[in-house]
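Supplementary notes for students who missed Thursday's class. We covered one full example, reproduced here. Read the sequence, then the structure, then the short commentary at the end.
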Amino acid sequence: MTTDTGEPALTVDELAARAGVTVRTVRFYSARGLLPPPVIGPRRVGHYSQEHLARLALIEELQRQGMTLAAIERHLTQLPPDLSARDLAIHRAVVASWAPDATEEVTREELERRAGRPLGDADLERLAAMSVIEGTGDPVRLDPGLLKLGLELLDVPIADESLLAARTVLLEHARAAARELSGLFRDAVGEQESVAAVKSLSAHMQPLVVQALLTAFQRSLKDELREWLKES
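Structure (token representation):
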């Protein structure tokens, strides 16, 4: 069975395995209304889409940020109801961007389970080059926040050299923007303010800045592609 977009539908067991949670957790979130109901297929089997998987990942991220289930419910009700899996992934990236850096050690078997696909040596090397994992042995250090993006990039028809060059460009511009924004924040706070005041400003501004950067980049990239296609 497939979804409306042609992607393979997931059973509750497959959804839980891909998300790294238990089936009981999926059913609990569904009962609380945090996940939309599945599509009921033949033999009354529920089928879940990539949107379910992305929403589940967002819920887990919000919980890692320390939000209660009641707060998560309120947060989700404020989101547009028709967000795609990609939109939800971007929203989760914004949420995760102000979380403390965290990596975890996982076996190759666990990495493949979370990825929902087998990973060859070439895949591991590419993920390592993108800093999704550290090392290519067994186990590896995994950055969970980068896993979904890294998996999507594995299927992009572009040479590794071009992909890594693009990553370098993004990092250089991101660091330059971060330096300039940090300078603006320092000027706004003033030299006499306490460390607590600086941390408070950062906590309030960081998610807003990340969202603004994502939105500006998406729109700028669309404009550039539109101009490129016009010229070709």
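Commentary. The radius of gyration is 20 Å. The chain has a mean pLDDT of 79. If anything here is unclear, bring it to office hours.
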